[in-house]
UniProtKB/TrEMBL annotation:
Its main location: membrane. This is Carbohydrate ABC transporter permease. One of its GO terms (biological process) is transmembrane transport. It holds the Pfam family BPD_transp_1. It is a multi-pass membrane protein. It is found in: Cell membrane. It comes from Oceanobacillus bengalensis. One of its GO terms (cellular component) is plasma membrane. Residues 76-270 form the ABC transmembrane type-1 domain. InterPro entries: MetI-like, MetI-like_sf. CDD domains: TM_PBP2 (cd06261). Coiled coil: none annotated. Belongs to the binding-protein-dependent transport system permease family. The chain crosses the membrane at residues 16-36, 75-99, 111-135, 147-166, 187-212, 246-266.
Length: 281
């Protein structure tokens, strides 16, 4: 009888967990669904009480209005180029820095790492004005270098890579590689990089989404409409006199789709890397 009671309690606890997960999944997906509903309806349906909860028939019309108002695909391409280059640079440089902090001993290492962590507590808005003066002196206004180069070093990326390398790359494996004649960079490239692919996937998701969604800094340094990123271009959909919510949400929804695709792709890569590592071990 005790075993039956324990099984029932286990089933009840599992059912309760599934219910909580279902509620959390619904709360996570509903904003995206609601955005899609508004992107497919006319203003009258959006502003009605109660508002529409079912997708309408204005998806093509609203997106056509977006294309007639802004260079949507051009801005999407600009964001994709900037986000991709910045993410690749962050993965390489932050993994190198994390590798050095995790596996090398040098004078002032702990102090330097602490200073890097302190920069994570400083709001990025505080550095907006001095960073703008530097970009102006370098002549990088209306140039993608003004967005890409300042974003190549990420304090969280260094911290994340350092922690992951410390706990997942054995010192014995590195010592064996050095005995075989590997240089420090070859140890990093041939030994460390294959192990930290899951960390790469996680950091890539975070950094790509951050650069893609960044609005303030691109708005400051990219003044020409042809070079604007998607977040800056979307603000042109807001008219001072007539607010077409269907058009605005249509542009916002389609600007979110690449992020969803990138997230799904890298999330699968993350799971696949963990599974391969478990099988090899």
């Amino acid at each position: 009888m005790s075993e039956k009671i324990q099984r029932k309690k286990l089933q009840i606890s599992k059912g309760f967990i599934y219910v909580l997960l279902a509620i959390a999944a619904f709360l996570s997906i509903f904003p995206l669904y609601w955005m899609f509903v508004m992107a497919t309806n006319h203003n009258s349906a959006i502003n009605s009480v109660p508002p529409a909860f079912i997708p309408g028939k204005e998806l093509v019309t609203n997106f056509s209005n977006v294309l007639n108002t802004i260079d949507f695909f051009g801005a999407m391409w600009n964001s994709f180029v900037v986000s991709t280059i910045t993410t690749i640079g962050v993965l390489f440089l932050c993994s190198l820095a994390g590798f050095a902090f995790a596996k090398f001993q040098f004078k002032g290492k702990n102090v330097l790492f602490l200073l890097i962590l302190i920069t994570m507590m400083i709001p990025p808005q505080l550095g907006l004005i001095p960073q703008y003066f530097i970009i102006t002196e370098l002549g990088w206004l209306n140039d993608y270098k003004a967005i890409i180069i300042p974003g190549l070093i990420d304090a969280f990326g260094i911290f994340w890579m350092r922690q992951y390398i410390s706990s997942n790359v054995p010192d014995e494996l590195m010592d064996a590689a050095r005995i075989d004649g590997c240089s420090n960079f070859r140890v990093y490239w041939n030994i460390t990089v294959p192990v930290i692919i899951p960390a790469f996937a996680t950091l890539a998701i975070i950094k790509f989404m951050y650069v893609w969604n960044d609005f303030l800094w691109p708005l400051v340094v990219l003044r020409e409409q042809a070079s604007q990123t998607i977040q800056v271009a979307l603000r042109l959909l807001i008219d001072n006199y007539v607010r077409d919510n269907g058009m605005i949400l249509s542009g916002t929804f389609w600007a979110t789709v690449p992020l969803i695709i990138i997230f799904i792709f890298l999330n699968r890569l993350f799971i696949q890397s963990l599974t391969e590592g478990a099988i090899k071990s």
